[in-house]
User: Which sequence fits this backbone?
């Protein structure tokens, strides 16, 4: 089962669990409150939602 959790990076709503219930979980979260720090497998996420995330606090993997 999947459940809502607060993202420690951005403070928005993310998820934990098996990943099989994400479409229902995602639909129940208010627009603009979805964490996009990690993927939502099986959920079609609009490009508008992806670009809403602030870039502050992001880390680079380049060395």
Assistant:
């Amino acid at each position: 089962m999947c459940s809502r959790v607060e993202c420690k990076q951005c403070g928005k709503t993310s998820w934990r669990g098996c990943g099989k219930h994400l479409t229902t979980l995602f639909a129940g979260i208010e627009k603009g409150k979805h964490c996009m720090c990690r993927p939502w497998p099986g959920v079609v996420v609009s490009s508008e939602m992806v670009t809403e995330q602030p870039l502050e606090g992001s880390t680079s993997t380049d060395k």
In short: The chain has a mean pLDDT of 85. The chain is about 15% helix and 15% strand.
